[in-house]
Design a protein that fits this description.
The protein is of the alpha+beta class and 91 residues long. It is built from one helix and four strands, in the order ββαββ. The chain has one domain: Phosphatidylinositol 3-kinase Catalytic Subunit, Chain A, domain 1 (Ubiquitin-like (UB roll), Roll), CATH 3.10.20. Helix content is 16%, strand content 30%. The chain has a four-stranded mixed β-sheet with strand order 2-1-4-3, with helices on one face. Strand 1 and strand 2 form a beta hairpin. It starts with 6 loop residues before the first strand and ends with a strand.
Length: 91
């Protein structure tokens, strides 16, 4: 059996579209890059044109922590099974 320690499975809620997704995230990516990739995927899956120039935020549903865009996923408390919310940052 091969253990994969470079990816984690999370539940991601896109409240703006009333949808949830199971997403595999690479642990070596910065949060801002995950936000952009996930936003593009959500836009494609929901058949909505999202403005990818917008700033997105990732929030832990349990702790309400908003993750810094410059944090690396492995250095956060995001682990397998974590429930996250992604949303457009309001100005």
């Amino acid at each position: 059996m091969i253990l994969m320690n470079n990816k984690i499975l999370v539940k991601l809620y896109a409240l703006e579209f009333d949808r949830q997704f199971d997403v595999v995230l690479p642990v070596n990516y910065l949060v801002w890059k995950i936000n952009k990739l996930v936003a593009k995927c959500i836009g494609d899956l929901c058949d909505v044109a999202l403005d990818l120039k917008s700033e997105f935020i990732l929030i832990n549903m349990k702790t309400n922590e908003i993750y810094s865009n410059n944090a690396i996923i492995r250095d956060t408390d995001i682990r397998n099974g974590t429930e996250l919310i992604i949303m457009t940052k309001r100005k």
